[in-house]
Amino acid sequence: MNIEPESETILNPEDRFPGGVYLDHIVLPHDESLQRTIVGKVRFLPGARTAWHSHARGQYLHVIDGVGRFGNRAGEIIEVRAGQTLYTPPNEERWHAAAPGHMMAHYAILEADGDAETPSWWGEQVTDEEFEGRA
Q1: Please, how many CA atoms are within 13 Å of residue 33, restricted to the half-sphere of its CB?
Q2: Strand ranges for 1-135 from DSSP E
Q3: pLDDT tens per residue, range 91-134
Q4: How far is the C-alpha of 21 from the C-alpha of 116, rounded, in Å?
């Protein structure tokens, strides 16, 4: 057994995470043939968001601080507060963000999938209308 090395905080790229989104890797597979779990602590500045995206094996998002806003292609927006966990099924296109006027941090928990043609798909930016529920 061993203590995992700490990772440096990464400022995620603006083309997928506009507005200031920071990532700390907590768990990464040592050997993808035996392990797939990935856990990251993701922190959003107020109003920061992801682009539209999906994950081949789905994802759990456990909010640990602030208020998160999560939206899907049907136009549904859910606000999630610290202590709550949101599950998104495999390949569901969605986005997540800090609610206006709030910072938000969550643990992102997902499985790597080296066998999938596209383990994570990234699409276009979320518009202000989509973020505000006016689209």
Answers
A1: 0
A2: 10-11, 21-27, 37-44, 53-55, 59-72, 77-81, 85-88, 94-98, 104-111, 120-122
A3: 999 999 999 999 999 999 998 876 666 678 999 999 999 999 88
A4: 26
- DSSP single-letter state for residue 105: E
Task: Return the bridge partners of 72, or none.
Answer: 94
Q: How far apart, in whole angstroms, are the C-alpha atoms of residue 128 and residue 87?
A: 24
Domains in the chain and their CATH numbers? 10-114+125-131 (2.60.120.10)
CA-based radius of gyration for the chain: 15
Cβ neighbors of 37 (< 8 A, separation 6 or more) are: 27, 29, 109, 110, 111, 112
